[in-house]
UniProtKB/TrEMBL annotation:
GO terms for molecular function: triacylglycerol lipase activity. Gene3D superfamilies: 1.10.260.130, alpha/beta hydrolase. Residues 27-46 are annotated as: Disordered. Pfam families: LIP. One of its GO terms (biological process) is lipid catabolic process. It comes from Williamsia herbipolensis. Residues 1-28 form the signal peptide. The lineage of its organism: Bacteria, Bacillati, Actinomycetota, Actinomycetes, Mycobacteriales. Residues 36-45 have a biased composition (Polar residues). This is Lipase family protein.
Amino acid sequence: MKSQLRAIAVAITLVAGVGTVATGTASAAPGDTFYTPPSNYSSEPGSVIKSRGTPLFLQIPGVPRAFPGNGSTIMYTSKLQDGSPTAVTGTVIEPFAPWRGKGPRPTVVMAPGTIGQGDQCAPSKLFGLPVSIDLAKPSLGINYEGLFANLLLYQGYRIMMTDYIGLGTPGVHTYVNRVEEGHAVLDGARAVLNFAKLPKNSPIGFWGYSQGGGATASAAEMASTYAPELNVKGTYAGAPPADLESVLKKVDGTSIVGVIGYTINGLVARYPELGPIIDREASPAGRQILKTLSTDCIGDTFFRYGFRNTSEWTTSKQSLFQISQKYPVIQKALDDQLIGKLKPSAPVLVETGVNDDIIPNAQVMTMVNSWRSKGANVVVSTDRTPPILSRLALNHALPYLFSTVPAYKFLFDRFNSPN
């Protein structure tokens, strides 16, 4: 185990180094017809609708069994919040590295952190090169989760990274929608079992941080009712936005304040009664900002709107948090996204930073305590990095790097546990 952990630390340094300098065109253009679902497809959740091979960054062409493995983009069936079937895309990578633990090779379903809301930001479009630059829009797409995927592939895990509902595929990406993100993760697990022709009891784990942490936390607590047949062994949920009302207040004025716009766009798509409220409260500039954000990647959002306040988006000059307090329908929509109401059926590692400048530590611990009160097995890893350039999001991003080794050890132990 110690040698494997040292290898992870080295791999973080190497992959991070090469990942930051790669630029170019994404392996699939935003208008790629692969991402358009057929007129008819199976409504059974987890059904594989179609697939194709995917080139992978760092893979040397022509070399047999080149690192990190054999990649495929798949489209699979999931469900919207109202139960309607929908098509979702994701990336499956079968590693060439051997599984170093006991039993059959496990599958880790990865839920990406905030990538953006534009279709061009879908992680499956950024596995050939982790960065894409579209000068015409302009847009900057970054698949930083490829770093963590490669670390898991190096250890022999099969990877499935979902694109989420509406990211790449038609419709608005319903950012931080608890139910739809949980569906995308759980149906992603079902899909990889079908795609790889694996036994139904194959071991499954979930990995996610930030938006991804919310998605995996949601999947963990929904698994026993939505996908009880899955053999979920454990979940890593880092910095989960479990209480959107608390996060809304915290993130305003930070470098990634624009994610509030992603949230509004996603909520309006599922709660149409919010539309007239937004029309009434948002200024003309605010409405244009929301429209622009709906096609942005997180890099675009950072450069366009970083460190602004949402009070600049409204006619009353009140913040969006203040406006949310005035309307019961907004309160209900936010409450519907609260994570912690159900009991995870398998152990969960939750990471939280006491000085996280994006995802408040207190709301994470409220979720944890709610789970524990229901009898869930929850381990908490607390990051105590002192404040660094408040509002820049460094105290949100750095704990992800620092929690990688504990998260890997947790999942490795879970996959080697007889329970």
